[in-house]
Specification:
The chain has helices at residues 51-61, 74-90, 92-107, 113-148; strands at 2-8, 11-17. By secondary structure, it is mainly α. It has a domain at 47-148. The chain has a two-stranded antiparallel ribbon with strand order 1-2. The N and C termini lie far apart (87 Å).
Length: 149
């Protein structure tokens, strides 16, 4: 677009008149970089995570339903994972139905099969990390005892 100057009395101003000539806008198409969310997975045992670390893992790493993340600390998350998996192993369909009803009643959130699958997978991951951490502690403490004897 080109400005058109008009004179009226002693003052002037610019008026933009749309051009009828087709302009090549390809040079205006610039790739906008994607926004990266700054998040790093905690390097410590899940049982030691803070409420904020749990929330970040729950909502960012696992993208689980945020309303279901009510844990005060990592120890509570680890206990919940054990209970969750125990109920899952006893009767997955009943457990899923109970979670659906609870989510709807307490949070007005629909809980679908894929949410359940993601929860099961996430709780398995927590349990596995917790178990690996216990083995690492036992391995290290056994080494220390051998050195002391």
């Amino acid at each position: 677009m080109e400005p058109l100057q008009t004179q009226t009395g002693h003052s002037s101003h610019e008026v933009f008149i749309p051009s009828t000539v087709k302009e090549d806008n390809s040079s205006l198409k610039v790739k906008v970089p994607e926004t990266n969310i700054e998040y790093s997975m905690p390097k410590t045992s899940p049982c030691t995570w803070s409420k904020a670390e749990i929330r970040a893992w729950w909502c960012t790493e696992r993208t689980l339903i945020p309303q279901l993340c009510t844990f005060y600390d990592g120890e509570a998350l680890c206990v919940y994972a054990q209970i969750f998996l125990n109920l899952y192993q006893q009767n997955p369909l009943t457990h899923l139905q109970n979670l659906r009803e609870q989510s709807k009643r307490e949070h007005s959130v629909d809980f679908y099969d894929d949410h359940y699958a993601n929860m099961v997978s996430s709780m398995m991951w927590i349990a596995k990390q917790n178990e690996n951490d216990k083995h690492a502690v036992n391995k290290n403490s056994t080494s220390v005892l051998c050195v002391l004897l």
